[in-house]
Write a structure and sequence with these properties.
The complex is a heterodimer of chains A (320) and B (267).
Chain A lengths: L3 E3 L26 H21 L2 E4 L14 H10 L5 E7 L6 H14 L4 E6 L6 H4 L6 H17 L5 E4 L4 E5 L13 E4 L3 H10 L2 E5 L5 H14 L10 E4 L8 H18 L15 H8 L25
Parallel strand pairs in A: 1-2, 2-3, 3-4, 4-7, 7-8, 8-9
Antiparallel strand pairs in A: 5-6
Helix pairs in contact in A: 2-3, 3-5, 6-7
Chain B lengths: L1 E7 L2 E8 L4 E5 L11 H6 L4 E5 L16 H14 L5 E6 L1 H10 L6 E7 L22 H8 L13 H18 L20 E6 L7 H10 L4 E5 L6 H4 L1 H14 L11
Helix pairs in contact in B: 2-3
The chains are: A alpha/beta (320), B alpha/beta (267).
């Protein structure tokens, strides 16, 4: 098992007085650049320490939010590629569903991989619902767009014999011939997240690392679907390194103390999910069927515990 | 009213047809509020054969994966007119439907006799930092309701069955499919409106909160010899709030055509 140290690089100073939105609409005048600078330095110091302690490192990216100052994950990756020595550097996730230029992504990530001497893990994600307003990409076709971006990035990284052209549904390039090519050949390992069995199976077919976040009792079904896809593609039995899980865990000497600590930890995803209602569910992000259930007054689909209780720390609807 | 399904170019849509008289194609706003009333069409059906399709991707019509723009929809409905062999057609479009109608008419008016555009969207008139159409995709349902109606319903529309809710959910998704970005307009359309060579009436609900009156007027001004009329006590969808006055304005304009009475019944 490998353990990745992760921080969203939050800006917690405004969390107490957020007027019901920490994302998208919170005015940036509430950010003190000097304090933000201190926070960045603190987070990078923590990561350097993680590297020295033998942990791996995970970074992420969100936009127009006080919950995550990592607005361009290529920046922390660039710094860490140079100042850390041995940690794997996982970006989870790189929201390629929001990005307009996949070839640029391939160039950036190839550079990171080479500078870090092959320590990059590439976690590709579609992006969270409320950031479609920020990127202006259309959530309606994001799955298809995501996979075209993925295909193009992988081809750009692994093509070494000269330029190719790309005239796809979403992206158009006349000349793709990136330098450098990645350190890990033909491309760094790919990770992705999912909440649906169909997508888990697809990730299994591709042999990618599948990560889930707080998926509770539903995790088993996702893992089974992944294994099904993995085996169907003739890959045999997937090893444990194909599965990644982000859990929220508190440990203490007594149960009471552990529960207090857990409450504190759970308050983090509760707070970071605070976003003005109009931005929570852009059209096309959830299926029409899921949206119909919401119109009927049923709640958005949520991760559940073994006995069927919704896991309430997660307010973001999960894309199926 | 008769309800049927038909296929154009492999895309199956549902179609309501009612009344007798010259053909009238009604292109609705695609918003789920359309389900609130069809009274305006009942009135129009006294004078016209009214065709009311559900746009591809909306309601119970097929979602055509390759159709992603209002340009696509305009070709689809030009094909519809040809397939039905309709001529002398009055096209009445509301909001997003008016955008489709205008996109059809700048291409070909061979089968079109009149255009009526109700609170049309589809053009860009203001500077790059001023949105012409209020962004309904960044608003709560309650705020959208307030912006759309002169007299907003007090509560959200409620749905009694999964089927009804699914039709509404499909409408919201489909509208974004075609109109998410550029938001509610085609940057090229305004410069092409001069091609419209059939009598055109632009109608505006006075209380529309999605667009402002100068926007509707600019739309009318860009269409040669278009007339402009206002409907009181109505918002973005006057055919829902003032069905009688709306239908009267359409009837006067199309059937009398002398321009003098064109907007009577409006105002």
């Amino acid at each position: 098992m490998r353990v990745y140290h992760f921080t969203e690089q939050p800006y917690p100073e405004v969390w107490a007085e957020h007027s019901d939105t920490l994302r998208v609409t919170l005015e940036s005048k509430h950010l003190d650049p000097e304090l933000a600078s201190d926070l960045y330095h603190r987070y990078y110091d923590e990561w350097v320490l993680a590297d020295e302690l033998g942990l791996d490192i995970m970074v992420n990216e969100h936009h127009q939010t006080a919950t995550c100052l990592s607005a361009a994950s290529i920046v922390p990756l660039s710094i860490l590629a140079r100042i850390t020595k041995r940690a794997r550097l996982l970006i989870l996730g790189y929201p390629i569903g929001h990005r307009s230029d996949p070839v640029r992504i391939a160039e950036e990530l190839a550079m990171i991989d080479v500078i870090s001497r092959g320590r990059l893990d590439m976690g590709f994600v579609k992006g969270v619902p409320y950031e479609f307003h920020c990127s202006n990409q259309n959530a309606v076709n994001v799955v298809e767009r995501f996979w075209e971006a993925h295909d193009l990035i992988m081809k750009a990284m692994s093509t070494t014999g000269g330029a190719f052209s790309w005239e796809g549904k979403y992206f158009d390039y006349r000349h793709v011939n990136i330098w450098p090519r990645p350190y890990q050949q033909p491309a760094p390992p790919v990770w992705s997240t999912t909440g649906s069995r169909a997508n888990a199976k697809l990730l299994g077919e591709k042999g990618y690392v599948m990560a889930t976040l707080g998926s509770g009792w539903g995790t088993r079904a996702l893992y089974d679907a992944y294994r099904e896809g993995y085996q169907a593609a003739g890959r045999g039995i997937p090893g444990p390194d194909r599965f990644s899980y982000l859990a929220l865990i508190a440990v203490a000497d007594t149960e009471q103390k552990a529960r207090e600590r857990a409450e504190q930890i759970a308050s983090y995803p509760r707070s970071s999910a605070i976003v003005a209602p109009a931005f929570r569910n852009p059209p096309g992000y959830l299926s029409a069927e899921d949206n119909a259930r919401i119109l009927l007054g049923q709640s958005a689909p949520r991760h559940k515990t073994k006995d069927g209780r919704p896991i309430t720390t997660m307010r973001v609807p999960c894309r199926t | 009213m008769s309800h049927s399904e038909m296929s154009i170019g492999g895309v199956r849509i549902s179609l309501d047809q009612q009344g007798e008289g010259p053909p009238l194609l009604f292109l609705d706003s695609g918003m789920r509020f359309e389900a609130l009333s069809s009274a305006a069409l009942d009135v129009l059906a006294r004078d016209f054969t009214v065709y009311r399709p559900s746009h591809p991707g909306f309601g119970s019509s097929d979602r055509a994966v390759e159709m992603t723009s209002v340009d696509d929809l305009s070709y689809f409905y030009l094909d519809f007119l040809a397939e039905q062999d309709l001529t002398g057609v009055t096209i009445v479009g509301a909001s997003f439907g008016a955008w489709i109608a205008a996109m059809m008419a700048v291409k070909c008016t061979a089968r079109i006799s009149h255009l009526v555009l109700i609170n049309p969207v589809g053009i860009k008139i203001s500077d790059r930092e001023t949105r012409d159409v209020v962004d309904i995709f960044s608003m709560t349902e309650e705020d959208v309701r307030k912006a759309i109606f002169h007299s907003p319903p007090d509560s959200p529309i409620t749905y009694s069955s999964m089927d009804d809710a699914l039709l509404a959910a499909r409408c919201r998704e489909a509208l974004a499919r075609y109109a998410w970005a550029p938001y509610m307009h085609d940057p090229k359309l305004k410069g092409r409106l001069h091609r419209i060579d059939v009598p055109t009436l632009v109608l505006r609900g006075v209380s529309d909160g999605l667009t402002q009156q100068p926007y509707s007027e600019a739309f009318a001004a860009a269409v040669p010899a278009a007339q402009f009329g206002l409907i009181d006590k109505a918002g973005h969808l006057p055919h829902l709030e003032q069905p009688e006055r709306f239908a009267e304005a359409v009837g006067n304009f199309v059937l009398e055509r002398n321009g003098v009475r064109a907007a009577s019944g409006a105002h």
